[in-house]
Design goal:
alpha/beta; Rossmann fold; 9 helices; 7 strands; 48% helix; globular; SDR_fam; SDR family oxidoreductase; NAD(P)-bd_dom_sf; oxidoreductase
Length: 265
């Protein structure tokens, strides 16, 4: 088995995780699809082409539990000579609305899943990534799911934005820290994606900008990132996101604030 083609995906049962699983299987990769949603995983496995099913490993993962991460990673790595070439920290949740209207427990849960889940994934997957890195350059990498909400804090998405800013910071720090160890670290930063996560979302920015991205578009970006050999860290998905990122870089802070105020009006 070619362990240079192994990817572990958290939150794989639906949305972006599901689309990424199907794309990488189609491309011939060994895919570990892990999630808390066992029914969703069963449906995913059912929808996979017969010829690819032997390359799909599924299992339960609660990203907020360290032991769950340890068990899931060990389970997948045993199919790949103890190595992992690509960790896709995809799992995440979103609660939207006015800050005071969202329960404190729900806001803390976002930090637990979106930040602590990424932290645990990176920390506990590192030995498997390090084992893959000895096979040569560009054989071990991490892709974290950030968001366009990490460009500037979004009203009615305050803690979601904060969680994605944290993911961005983890990505930037580990990209520097792990470079000498042969582990490439990047993040993907889409705007609103047509998934169940935004179905009931409350936010004026979504109504103004629309939902123009599909899970397949994000998955295609992740696939490009899996083969990328350059130095780019943040990958913006879609024209709107790229324009927002460019404007944030080129505009003074007061203008960035003003434009975000207008978008979320």
């Amino acid at each position: 088995m070619d362990t240079r083609n192994s990817i572990f995906i958290s939150g794989a049962a639906a949305g972006i995780g599901r689309a990424t699983t199907l794309l990488f299987l189609e491309a011939g990769w060994q895919v570990g699809a892990y999630d808390r949603d066992t029914d969703g995983l069963a449906k995913l496995a059912n929808d996979v082409a017969e010829s690819a099913r032997e390359r799909l490993i599924t299992g339960v993962l609660d990203v907020t539990e360290n032991t769950s991460w340890q068990d899931a990673l060990a389970d997948f790595a045993q199919h790949n000579d103890g190595k992992l070439n690509l960790l896709f920290n995809n799992a995440g949740i979103l609660y939207s609305g006015a800050f005071e209207a969202i329960s404190l427990e729900a806001q803390q849960r976002m930090i637990e899943v979106n930040v602590q889940g990424v932290l645990a994934g990176c920390y506990l997957a590192r030995p498997y990534l390090e084992a893959a890195a000895v096979d040569g350059p560009n054989t071990a990498r991490v892709i974290n799911m950030s968001s366009a909400s990490a460009i500037y804090g979004q009203p009615k998405l305050a803690i979601y934005s904060a969680s994605k800013f944290a993911v961005r910071a983890i990505t930037e720090a580990l990209e520097l820290e792990w470079a000498d160890q042969g582990i490439k670290v990047m993040d993907v930063m889409p705007l609103f994606v047509k998934t169940a996560m935004v179905a009931d979302m409350q936010g004026d920015s979504m109504r103004r900008l629309g939902v123009r991205l599909t899970p397949q578009m994000v998955a295609a970006t992740v696939y490009r990132m899996a083969h990328y050999k350059g130095s780019r860290i943040h990958w913006y998905v879609g024209r709107q996101t790229k324009l927002m990122a460019l404007a944030s870089k080129l505009s003074p802070s007061w203008l960035v604030r003003l434009s975000n105020k207008w978008i979320s009006r």
